[in-house]
Each structure stands twice: as structure tokens, then as C-alpha cells.
Amino acid sequence: MKKIVYRGLALLGLACGVAVLASPGAAQRPRPPRFARPIIVDELKNKDRTSPWKVTVATDKDTYQIGEPVTVSVTSEQAGYLYLINVGSDNSMAVLFPNNYQSNNEIQAGQKVSVPDPSDGQFRLRVGEPAGKEVILALVFKDKPQTLDPKDYARSGRASKKRATPIKPFTLKKLVVEGMGGNPNAVQTPPPGQENQVSVQKEQQQLQQQNQQQFEQKQKEWATGRVEFTTVAGKVPPAEKDKTQQEKGRK
Which end of the chain has less neighbouring CB within 10 Å, N or C? Predict the structure, then answer.
């Protein structure tokens, strides 16, 4: 069976093409400046401290070389609908789960969810350039949210099977606002150049003022978790890495 490899530039699973190495003596193009991490990502880190139930996220290693395969595992103490979002070292974002091969994101309490599914060898996640710090966010909602419909992240077609779906911080904000009991469709698009300044503090304060009791109840209906890991330069040839994995499987 043909294996589909998810590749990316800073994103696990985002197929942005294969990097082209410059020939000796060729002029090196300067890398564009990196953007600051979206504010909402750090706000969700604070949210972890008061999550109503525990969501454990783990990767099979703490440090990866470019090209190495990655497995992400998630376990939630309560049942719900799971979304995994990768924040790359350049702070771009993509949805890792649900995906084209794992379209059902409804999970049970205590169920261990692995991405990719170890029983399905159709695709893998591989670390992409550039090297640096990466974050994987897990969000579990008791009720199925309108934002981030799984159908949008499990598309058919040859191209989509090789791609995770990129999202903007604005979309993540809509998902969080909906989780807090707000109207995701009322969230305003940020002005150009301020995409990574997206924050939910204003909406949180408004919802608390409108109905504190309802806000507190909604906060009990979704939980978050996260894991951070490091990627380093030094590409691993896919053929060698596949061979290593096969040898491990025979032990």
C-alpha cells in the first residue's frame, strides 16, 4: 500500500513542497523575518491551568531531526470532540486532527488517540523545515462546535490527501469564543498586519459581563492540553528512516 507522507515548512502535516538546495556559489536568499507567536496560543496555555478535566498530549520524542516521522497521542479524561492544531516554529498553524484519514473526531473518555493511527499505514507525519520550537494544541469540546467542521479537514482528492489544512489564528479564536458560549460568526476579522495579535480577552470579559453563570458553565464544557518539542537541522533520508522503523517493528 502506498504511504502518503505529510511534509511541511514548520508544520507537521502541511505539504508546502520540497525544499530546493542552492548550488555551490549560488546567492542565498535571506529568510523572511519570523512572526511573533499568536497571542491566543499563550492564552490557551494559561487556560490549561484551569481546564475542567485533564487532556494529556504527548509526542514519541522530545527532539526530532528534519524528516523524522512523528506520532502524537492524546488522552482526554472526558468524552468529546477533539481538535489537534500544530503551531510551527515560524508560528504558522495547521489542523492535524481530524484529517483525511481520521475524519471522525469524536472520542471517548480515557481513549488514547494516536495521529497517525498505528493500525493504518496509509500516511505518516514528518517534521518539516525550518528547525525550532513547535507546539501542538489539543482542544476537546463536549458539544460539537460549528467552527472547524471535520468535513473541511477530511477532503477527498489526491492533493488534499497530502496536505494538512492550514488555519489562521482568527479561526482558532472563533473556535475558542464558541467554546466560551459566544457567537463565532460575530468575531471580527483582524486588520492586515495584525493577524498574530488575535486575543480572546475582550470577548471573555464581554461574555462574563453578559451572563457570569452561563460563562462559568460553558468553561466546564471544554478543555485543553498541549505539548512542545524541538526540531533540529540535519535531514534524515526518508529511506533510512523507513528502514529503521521496519527494523524496530521486527523486534
Answer: C
Locus of grid cell 505539548: 227
As to burial, measured by CB atoms within 10 angstroms (0-12 exposed, 13-18 middle, 19+ buried), residue 7 is: buried
What span, in angstroms and rounded, lies between the C-alpha atoms of 213 and 4? 47
Identity at 167, one-letter amino acid code:
I
DSSP assignments along 85-142, one per residue:
EEE-TTS-EEEEES-SS----EE-TT-EEEES-TT-TTEEEE--BSPEEEEEEEEEES
What is the rounded CA–CA span in Å between residue 38 and residue 41? 6
Contact 196, 40 (CB under 8 A): no
| Single-letter residue type at 41 | V
pLDDT confidence bin for 72, thresholds 50/70/90: very high
Q: How confident is the model at residue 124 (pLDDT cuts 50, 70, 90)?
A: confident
pLDDT of 43 reads 85
How far apart are alpha carbons 216 and 167 in whole angstroms? Answer: 28
Confidence of residue 236 (pLDDT cuts 50, 70, 90): low
What burial letters (b/e) apply to 141-155, b meaning 16+ CB within 10 Å?
bbeebebbebeebbe
Rounded to an integer, what distance in angstroms lies between the CA atom of residue 87 and that of residue 59?
14
pLDDT at 129: 86
Q: Which residue has the cell 546567492?
A: 27
Question: What's phi and psi for 203, nearest 5 deg?
Answer: -65, -35
- Residue 238: the pLDDT is 54
* 239 or 84, higher pLDDT: 84
pTM of the predicted structure, to 2 decimals: 0.78
Q: Determine the length of the chain.
A: 251
